[in-house]
Amino acid sequence: MPNSNWRHLFTFNVLADSSMPSGDQRIEQSYNLARDLYASLGVDTQEALARLRRIPISLHCWQGDDVAGFEQSGDELGGGLAVTGNYPGKATTPDELRADLQQAYSLIPGKHRLNLHAIYGEFGDHVPERNEIGPEHFTGWIDWAKDQELGLDFNPTYFAHPLAADGLTLSHPDPTVRSYWIEHGRVSRKIGAAMGAALGTPAVTNSWIPDGMKDTPADRKAPRERLAESLDAVFAEPIDPTENLDAVECKLFGIGSESYVVGSHEFYLGYAITRQKLLCLDAGHFHPTETISDKISSVLTYVPELLLHVSRGVRWDSDHVVTLNEELFAIATELVRGGYLDRTHIGLDFFDASINRIAAWAIGTRNMIRALLAALLEPTDKLREFESQGDFTARLALMEEIKTLPLGAVWDYYCLQSGVPVGMDWLEQVREYEKSTLIHRSAKPAAL
Ligand code: RNT
Ligand code: ZN
Hints:
TIM Barrel; globular; binds zinc ion
């Protein structure tokens, strides 16, 4: 059960008066008032919570160790990925990362998933080449996921490797380099399928490559043609969609690929439509004023399913921890309004090494869930009624009014019901774990 620090914040003075309700009772009372208020707008809070409980979020393993993985190659991250901060206690072994993840999941209501990258295999003394990895390197993760009742998702790792050092992988002009990465893509799908088969829920295996150029290319066409061909080779073998689903992730620019990204938005949109693959939309991968919330209904008109990398760019694709901002609400609202939850896989993608890494997971994931709750509590029918009557005045008025409905009371109640900490109580647990475990780790601080 959650400890009671948060509840003390709003139940101070309570101890003196035994007729006053306890913290839990207050949460229930607040919920009851909120439930009636939402009901007056035609919204059933119990139904919203029942739906919320069924939406899994895929937590990204790489928040736990600054995208380091377990190859221990010493290769720099590269690919335009940058993690800043040197907060102590990052995980350096699979067991540490699993322990940290367990701590994070215990703070998050609902049953969720874990998104692994290929570099997080358990390789033992001999680290294989990326084109030689297999499900055998992930049995520790699969067994643990089974035990924790988590689904797994997967990603080939096309960066932090000597053969990616010049910024090209699947679109590389050298056929030897290309076939190395094609093979990596193939074995990665098999690992995804093994995870899906073992856990009874398909793994989404997402391909993101760093390929691009710092300065203006003389040839934009050939790398894109090579990429399409390489991807076709990666996906040539059919895999049962109940075990593995393929996704491709587009991007506008990266550090070192400012002028040209081979796998641009248009490239992958076309690829995903023509091959009926999942498109991955990362919230940080577009122009700063462009939002993925507006893309969801367009893209899902043509692709079978969607993968989201919910992230937060600050001025650029900086992968800050997801906060409860307007775009997060908009993403969740689009998924609910469009009836897209069954066709959308919600993943997170941020990495912050300047704060407690478990807290980063807890903050970002709780926010994603809270935004989904807000969306499920929206009186959409009423808004649509105004819209269909052409009454845009009332539509705007109601949209503004619902922003201050008691979402927090329903959220607190959901946390209480789910047996996870209410309010800020989770932070106390993170601090205790930091004291008991994280600060004793010998890992060198991440480079700034
Ligand atoms: C990079 C992509 C990609 C990575 C992860 C680690 O710009 O967003 O999804 O963040 O694969
Ligand atoms: Zn991403």
